[in-house]
Amino acid sequence: MIPIKLHNTLTNQLETLSPVHPGEVRIYTCGPTVYAYAHIGNFRTFVFQDILRRFLRSQGLRLLHVMNVTDVDDRIIVNAAGAGISIREYTEKYIQAFLDDMAAINLEQPEILARATEHIDDMVALIEKLQNKGFTYKSDGSIYYRIAKFPKYGKLSRIDVSGMQSGARVDVDRYEKDDARDFALWKAPKAGEHFWETRIGPGRPGWHIECSAMAMEYLGETLDIHAGGVDLSFPHHENEIAQSEGATGHLFSKIWLHGEHLLVEGQKMSKSLGNFYTLRDLFAKGEKPSTLRFLLLSVPYRRQLNFTEDGLRQAQSSVERLRTFITRLKTTNFPEGSYEPMMARIKRAETDFDAALADDLNTAVALAAVFDLVRDANSAMDRGTFQQQNATRAIAAMEKFDAVLAVLTVDDDEKLQKMGFTQGDTRMPAEQVEALIEERKAAKSARDFQRADAIRKQLSDSGIILEDAKDGTVRWKYK
Ligand code: AMP
Ligand code: ZN
Question: What gap in Å lies between CA 205 and CA 195, rounded to an integer?
Answer without folding.
Answer: 9
